[in-house]
Write the structure tokens for this entry.
Amino acid sequence: MSPYQDFTLQELMAVAAAREIKDGEKVIIGTGLPLLGATLAQKTHAPNMVAIYESGAIDCKPLVTPFSVADSVLAPGSAMQGGLMEGLGMVHAGDIDVGFLGGGQIDRYGNLNTHVIGDYRNPQVRFAGSGGNNDIGTGCKRTIVMMLHEKRRFPEKVDFITTPGFLSGRGQREKLGLPGGGPSVVVSTMGILRFHPETREMYLESYHPGVTIEKIKENTGWDLKVSDHVRETERPTPELIRILREVLDPTGIFLKKE
Amino acid sequence: MRESKVMSTREAVSKFIENGMTVAIGGFFHGISYAITHEIIRQKKAHLTICQPSFNEHADQLIGAGCVDRIISAYVWMEVFGPLYCFRRAMEKGIPHKIEMEDYTNFSMMARLMAGALGVPYIPLHSLMGSDMMKHSAWMGDGKVKLIKDPFGSGVEHAVVPALVPDVGYFHAQRADAEGYVQMWGICGDLPWSMRACKKVIVSVEEIVDRRVISGDPNRTILPGYKVVAVLHEPFGAHPKNIQGYYDVDRDFIFKYIRESKQPEDWRKFMDEWVYAVKDRNAYSEKYIQTFGLKKFLSFKAKDMSCTSVNYGY
């Protein structure tokens, strides 16, 4: 039996993210799992993907996996090197196909919060702030959101809208003239969720191996709708796991052993 | 020969950074001047408003040391390394004192700085629209962001943000000449727009070079000398961060800072050891080598990946 039959949750999520990227797309990537997901796509089914970092590295093919969005390994592997005005400027113009996002909270309509838990002026917990989150969520044609799936992180309404998903639902983004299309998928630690094309409400498309639909509903802060075709999340192939472990993260910095 | 702007970091900070000023701290992970930041802390500058699209643990050290009253930024965190605890203590519990943050996004910060650099009063943008950053302000009130209708008749309503013109800015680059023509390569992040927006700029560099080196490759120059008031020779001045072609990130040291900043007492010990008791950057490098060994120090040294030169001939 292949030593890569087993996989961790993080590996499953990285593979799920990679599957969302089509060949030839322009993708703006952050650090951590999104980086592994996007790089995995580039090494497998999407060799013509254009990888962009908001810090200004454009069409990078770094020799080792970068640790930060401004890692020194990015520059010598890039076809173009600028700054935020180049990286995020192209996002702002609506040129970029896919962006990766994450956050402290996500709600029923895919709005993200990376600012505060509790009151904005007297926060219980203060997070980092937007960084490029709002810019990427506003400008990219679609976004892939990666989330820890807990009830407090999936409230019906976020405490603070850092990045608009579909706001209060159908037609809201269009009304504001936001150039990008909004979130297309949420890859959570429990399942894969998408947004209804009409109502724009989040629904469950698949559950990860070992997780039940009931458990996902319990960990979601509203009455989560479930697809009629709900199924188990597609398992990663041994070959994808091998590339993740041996090529992309040989020292195990990103994919901690469970 | 025009006047040389080369001086010590101590002199530059004392001369050009005053209490209450708005200070742009350039560098997006890459190109941050820890040399200048630590001197600001040693000189106990106070009531500063610091601004930059994204801040790392240099901002955390300034906040913990009580130098900062206000932040204009999109982000104060240390990426995948973890949270910044002085920032959180100040925002959540008012330790050492309550600070305020005017929240923008990376791009809207760049837009504000670009407007400042161009000398126009405001700039329109898509970012911020529909977010709660439109509704909430720390101290700027409705001067933070406004909605205006496209004056050219498209019918579209845009967010507009005001120009940001900091009193002074500082960052770390690879090299400059004595007059302040700065050259930088690798990740540029907020640069050069954030510095062009400032009334004056202090730059610390790995090397001070002759004008002939600068004018031999003028496309690599990111700031004109007239913007720069002080040029500081500070090798290893960006540690624990990177500067392309000189040294890489010291991840262990960043993790060490984050670990030791969790508790205020441990944070104080770290700062006593690495900032307050160290008189300048040379002493810092010596201390680093004494503590962690020459082998570790040299392990960050950049590989030679020099590029081919271009022909500027005519």
User: Anything to note?
Assistant: Residues 205 and 229 of chain A are 7 Å apart (CA to CA).
